[in-house]
């Protein structure tokens, strides 16, 4: 005998309300036909946030083509069933407030940081910030920061790697292999310069001397690489409770 299907309660899409009902008398948005509200007041209150998703659906994505990555993620991606399926697959919880940083890191570490998945999360507009973050995370996977490094300590303290599926990052491209090779050379320069002094003692004059030695007059261009290389080096950073 077939059991009757039990419908999940409908939840008001206004986050400041969140009333639920097992009835279908909640108002359906007549634009996107994706969300419901318990009242017209709630619908009006939420319009300044919902309009991004609504117009994205009704324009078949045209209205969101120029959105910044963080806006696209917060207003559109977190409500996309495909994004939720991807998040479930890699074991991460979506949150509009985290700007997608957690899921981007997870995508990289499990080898699912494809252009298609990145577009699914951040759209096709201004991706400059995401491209930089993606590059830094890719470098991290290839540098394998040891315990006691700032990179490893940050990941552990923020529980960024909690509930990870098996790690399987993509093989580096030729360009990435060259970039990481330069970072490793920079790490070796830091070790040689510091000599018997611990890397954790590095100061402003040390930093400047290493940058000029490595990059000459173009030392400003090397600051980001220097920071990445340094953060991936063991510096005795072992906050209580993180490595216990």
Radius of gyration based on Cα positions: 23 Å
In total, the number of strands is 4
Low-confidence stretches: 1-6
Helical proportion? Answer: 40-55%
Please work out how many helical segments DSSP would assign. 10
Strand percent estimate: under 5%
Beginning-to-end CA distance, first to last residue: 55 Å
Q: Reading side by side through the largest sheet, how are the strands ordered?
A: 1-2
State the major sheet. Answer: 2 strands, antiparallel
Compressed to H and E, one letter per element, the order equals EEEEHHHHHHHHHH
The backbone outline, from C-alpha atoms, is elongated
Q: Name the structural class.
A: mainly alpha
The residue-averaged pLDDT reads 88
Describe the protein:
With 244 residues, this protein is mainly α. It has 10 helices and 4 strands; from the N terminus they run ββββαααααααααα. It has helices at 40-58, 69-75, 81-90, 101-109, 115-122, 128-143, 150-157, 174-194, 204-215, 223-231, and strands spanning 10-11, 20-21, 27-28, 36-37. It starts with 9 loop residues before the first strand and ends in a 13-residue tail after the last helix.
């Amino acid at each position: 005998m077939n059991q009757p299907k039990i419908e999940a309660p409908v939840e008001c899409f206004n986050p400041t309300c969140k009333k639920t009902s097992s009835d279908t008398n909640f108002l359906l948005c007549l634009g996107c036909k994706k969300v419901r509200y318990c009242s017209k007041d709630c619908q009006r209150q939420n319009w300044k946030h919902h309009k991004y998703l609504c117009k994205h659906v009704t324009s078949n994505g045209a209205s969101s083509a120029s959105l910044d990555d963080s806006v696209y993620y917060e207003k559109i991606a977190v409500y996309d069933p495909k994004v939720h399926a991807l998040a479930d697959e890699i074991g991460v919880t979506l949150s509009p407030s985290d700007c997608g940083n957690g899921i981007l890191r997870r995508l990289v570490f499990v080898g699912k940081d494809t252009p298609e998945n990145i577009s699914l999360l951040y759209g096709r507009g201004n991706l400059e910030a995401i491209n930089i973050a993606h590059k830094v995370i890719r470098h991290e996977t290839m540098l394998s920061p040891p315990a006691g490094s700032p990179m490893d300590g940050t990941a552990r303290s923020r529980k960024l790697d909690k509930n990870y599926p098996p790690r399987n990052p993509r093989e580096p491209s030729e360009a990435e292999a060259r970039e990481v090779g330069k970072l490793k050379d920079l790490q070796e320069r830091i070790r040689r310069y510091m000599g018997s002094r611990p890397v954790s003692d590095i100061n402003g004059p040390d930093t400047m001397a290493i940058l000029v030695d490595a990059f000459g007059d173009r030392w400003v261009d090397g600051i980001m690489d220097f920071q990445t290389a340094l953060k991936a080096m063991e510096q005795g950073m072992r906050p209580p409770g993180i490595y216990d």
